[in-house]
Amino acid sequence: MSESSKRDITILIVEDHPATLAEVQRLVSEAFPACRTLTAGSAERALDLCMDHPAPHVVVMDIGLPEMDGIEATRRIRSAVPHMRVVMHSNHDLPIYRDGAAVVGADAFVSKRETVSELVPAIARLLTGL
Q: Rounded to two decimals, what is the model's pTM?
């Protein structure tokens, strides 16, 4: 992907814990400096941003969000914007959550314990498909 096409890429990070949000945003911004980064502290705000034009290309979605969880938010996002790519990012690293993420259309699942080593490569894989 050329530098000019990366400038058109938007990555949305959905996380309700400020310290985790700051760390993920730092990792993503350092790894993909030419991409635009947006943040949302709730699933509802993420849905609003995903319906904007232009919509984000990749969403990094926490599962444990207040009110609406990341699984339901991903289901709604993929229903409304099927081409959007979603990386589930969660402390809930159990098969039931991984399976739930896959069922609703998440393209990848990264445990928060593996954020530093796995999140950037997962996003990079999804960006190569754009």
A: 0.93
What's the one-letter identity of residue 42?
Answer: S
pLDDT digits (tens, 9 = 90+) for 3-37: 444 558 999 999 999 999 999 999 999 999 999 99
Q: Quick one: tokens of 88?
A: 């589930």
Task: Say how far apart CA 98 and CA 94 lie, in whole Å.
Answer: 6
What DSSP string runs through 7-27?
TT-EEEEE-SSHHHHHHHHHH
Place of tokens 């593996």: 114
Name residues whose C-beta falls within 8 Å of residue 7's C-beta, 6 or more positions apart in sequence.
Answer: 34, 35, 36
d(CA 52, CA 107): 21
d(CA 73, CA 113) in angstroms, rounded, equals 22
Q: Does domain 3-128 have CATH number 3.40.50.2300?
A: yes
Q: For the chain, what are the domain ranges? A: 3-128
Question: Can you tell me the distance from the alpha carbon of 34 to that of 30, in angstroms, rounded to the nearest whole number?
Answer: 9
DSSP code of residue 7: T
